[in-house]
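Worked Example 4.2. Consider the chain below.
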Amino acid sequence: QVQVAESGGGSVQVGGSLNLSCTTFGDIANGVAWFRQTPGQEREGIAAIYGARDFKYYADFVKGRFTISRQKVESESVLTLQMGSLKSDDTAMYYCAASLYGGFWPPSSSLDGDKYDYWGQGTQVTVSS
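Applying the procedure from the previous section yields the following C-alpha cells:
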C-alpha cells in the first residue's frame, strides 16, 4: 500500500509560477506522476518520474515549462512539480499518482493513468489573466 498526499496549488496569474508537492509513504513507489483534469475533459498525464534511476518523461504541452523531481528518504518520497510560464489552459485539478512498479516502462506509458494504483485527493490550480 502507498499513501499519497498532495500539497500546493492555488491561484496564480498568467505567466506566473507555482509548485506542487506530493508525498508518498508506505510501500516504495517506483513510479510517480502528476495528472490533471478539468470538468468534462479526460484526465491527462503531465509528468512522470520512475525507475531506480529516476527517468523523467513530460507531456509535450509542458516541456520547457514544468520540471518534475523526487527526493527519497527511506520509504517516503517527496515529488515536486515546478510549474512555470503558466497559461490559463493549465487551470485544472491536479492529481499525484503512485505505482509500486515502473522499473521498465516505455517512457510514454509512464503517463498512462492505468499504470497507477494509488491516487491523491487532488489540488486545484487556477491560472487567471
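The longest strand covers residues 18-26. The mean pLDDT is 93. Compare this with Example 4.1 before moving on.
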